[in-house]
Amino acid sequence: MPSLRNILPAFCLLFVFSQPVLASGPDGGMYPINTLHQIPLKKAGLRITENDIYNPNGTGLLQAIVQIGGCTGSFVSGQGLIITNHHCSFSSLAPYSSTVNNLFEKGYLARSNKDELPMKGLSCKIMEDHSDVSAEVLAGTDTINDPLRKKTAIEKNMSKVSQLAQLKNDKLEVEISEMLPGKSYILFSYKVIKDIRIVYIPPRDIGEFGGETDNWTWPRHTGDFSFIRAYVNKNGDGAGYDTSNIPYQPKEYLNINATGADTGDFVFVLGYPGRTYRQEPAEFLKYQQDYQLPFISELYEWQINTMLDLGKSDSAYKIRQDPKIKSIANVMKNYKGKLEGLRKLDLYREKKADDIAIGSKITDPSIRKKYFETLKGIYDVYTSAEKEYLKYAWYNRLLIDDYFIKIAHVVDLCKTDYILNKKPDNILINSSVKLLRDYYKSMYVKFDTVYFSKMLRDANGFDADNRPMTYGDAANGRKADPGLALAVSKLLDSSYIFDLLQNKANKLPKLKDPFITLAKSYYADAKRLDSTETVYKTQIDALTATYIDLKMQALQEQFIPDANHTLRLTYGYVKGYSPRDGVYCHAFTTVAGMIEKNGENPDYKVDEELMKVFKQNVANEQAKNHDVPLCLLYNTDTTGGNSGSPVLNKYGQLIGLNFDRNYEATINDYAWDDKYSRSIGLDIRFVLWDLKNVAGAKNILDEMFIDN
Description:
- By secondary structure, this protein is α+β, with helices and mostly antiparallel strands.
- It is built from 25 helices and 21 strands.
């Protein structure tokens, strides 16, 4: 492994946390890997050394951790076997599922390597090296005062540094991550493996038991796990799928502790948390609370209900939309939890008061003045940005989600080009036809028509600053329902459009359709807003960097950087909590609890084989008093991206699999508190019990050296 000793001391000093973490419990924190020696993990309960986790001069548990899409996984055998969540691999069953053979519902088990199914479009990343490149990225930018010019210069330097690093090792993928805007940048090198295959994905009634009813809640009773395998070519390179590829042999893999954990046990989690926003100023919280969270959560809720209704009469559509529904439902409930938490805790006012109180601690008048000027600058930029936020958010969703408006846009580009040049551009026509084929294949007319109509109705209710062009504007004042008009639009006739583009392009200038007019207006306005938002973001990044710097000076503390999809460690204890007065939630649930819920609603349907096996009271080493531990709670600090992260005991052994947080902890992205912040994991004892008694996956147990 390349040496990690070249990390600059300045980086280590920058992220030292100032408050000691006592063995009685953590204070929240997703710690960068190179700060492990500065965290009192031994005092907290760790019984292995920090070098056993991360060794700059050798290997450690980190070499067993992989990033898979937006999730985390870990190697559990020397033959590339990876354990992660069910919800992280579930969608990979789509190409193999149909109304006749619905693997979403049935699950899939490969009895041997030759039966493993390729996971199309998925890859995994293993961190091989990282180094501080702040000096190189910021070179020549300290004298640039204009935020946009400075941002451009930084991006140019980042590109140069990345390209140089890539040339030095073309077998690794390099990526520079911004730890603090305008201050700290780390270059990560990853081994990327592109041939990933399905080994075992449990039936839906196991892997998704509780569905959206239980999502982001405790108590939890779901078997959210799966096994996949990484393959490389015979040279050990992470090439794409090939039948001649062989299982990857990781430098490290995790050992499993089949006895699990108990309440009070020390645990730590390794993984790739997505994004947190704890170092952001108060105005960011207001923006989230007033605009981002309510807009997206309400729109996603409408989309979910609409897709579910359409799926009742179209089973093929239901199967096709299952992964999307599951994905946006997860975001929707998360956003609702965050919104509720922000309002309940009144975090905006609390942080606003904290910002003012921090300024009062600055004794130097010139620094204090600069601090309050920075706060005012942040307020002014957010106030300007908010004027058109609804329109900006509306465009972002419509131009991503609605295939019909995307089709109208492509046709308009061809029409505009023909009018401009008086002849067809064959290259443009061919590329447009190819893109349109994908759009027509992906669109579902019933959904797109009602979605488009809903979005236009919403836009009609926006204020003057946020109101985009409406159907009435584009149709010269006609009040016809845009949904009905869309249903008879020639743009829905793919044969007509393809014939027009390929054979009758000279008729394009005469093509008149209100939806083409709308598309032209929307894309032009969205482009303008993108430029404006870029300016706002650049200004906010520059001001936020100054804000954090002055805040650290005032408090004489250093801050843990916000999560940014890079490898982190968090630790805590197996621990219950009290969500409200008079209620206490214990730290474990069991299979018996799952069965108690059976039939209460459609989300509570226990897998038949699991029910049968459990009722037979099969004696095995995982069962306690004829019951099986299923899920557990612990007070580590996790967020999106930690799905699938290994939960490890004090000896670094696998005792669980992280997959969620409790509803109260959705606010963790903005603030962490031991009173309500809990992570939810799957108990490894359930995984082993399922493999042995329900799935009959002796091949997987044997590979992990589990005595069965």
